[in-house]
Amino acid sequence: MNNNGAYKDSCRNGTDRTEERRSQAQRDAATVEIGYALASAAFVAAVASGFVAGPALFLPLSPGTVHALVTAGGVLAATLFPLRVVTVLYRFHRHGTPAQPSQPGRTNPDS
What we know:
With 111 residues, the chain is mostly helical. The protein is built from three helices and no strands. It has helices at residues 17-20, 24-58, 63-95.
């Protein structure tokens, strides 16, 4: 039995639920990383779309060419946005949060 009267085997994976919870700092770091992923993805998509569709605004081109450039810019932006979000969040999940030093005042856990 654990402290709240439930048997340990009744929890998922045989672990206590309190061990699975994230700290406030970990939740805050995930929130900041999600915000960064969305903002950087919007920026990358806007720059790429502007790079492709920009000439349509400043050069005298035929209507078919303008339509093709604007469509290609939109498709590129729609592709890059989720790609950037996924790669940023995957990198964050893969590397996780840095480990705390094992002793106060030490910068390396092995020192």
